[in-house]
Amino acid sequence: MVRTMPYGRKALFIGGHAAYVKGMPEEEGHALIEELYALAAQEKFIYRHKWKQHDLVIWDNRCTMHAATPLTSDEYRRDVRRTTINEHGPESTAAEWARAA
User: Fold this and answer.
1) Whose CA, among 36, 61, 65, 69, lies 20 to 30 Å from 82?
2) What is the average per-residue pLDDT within 96-100?
3) Quick check: 63 and 5 in contact, CB under 8 A?
4) pTM of the entire structure?
5) From the CB of residue 82, how many other CB atoms can be counted at a distance below 10 Å?
6) 12 pairs with which residues across the strands?
7) CA-CA distance, 76 to 58, in Å (whole number)?
8) Which tens digit of pLDDT belongs to each residue from 16-72?
């Protein structure tokens, strides 16, 4: 339930995909998941972007819980794209990749 990024930062790996905790009774594991989710979803940890024309928002999907908010208008076109970088294999920086090329 805790992911350690290659650079050492730890992040909770919880969300809608979390169904049980290995080695715990089902009810106890579910209660722990709910408690951790409630902790992580506190208002002080939530970022809500106030969109302006030409904005670009990028997040690290490995250590971020995210959800879209409802569209309140169809006045503007919404263009949402997913980009995956280095999904498989060891992580490296762009500088490390350039040296290896």
Assistant:
1) 36
2) 72
3) yes
4) 0.64
5) 5
6) 2
7) 20
8) 788 889 999 999 999 999 999 999 889 999 898 888 888 888 888 778 887 777 777
So what's the pLDDT on residue 77? 76
**Beta strands of 2-98 (E only): which ranges?**
2-4, 10-12
Domain ranges of the chain: 1-85
The size of the chain, in residues, is 101
pLDDT in tens, 71-92: 777 887 778 887 777 656 666 6
CA distances from 2 to 23, 31, 101 (A): 15, 16, 33
CB atoms within 10 A of CB 1: 13
Sign of CA dihedral 20, 21, 24, 28: negative
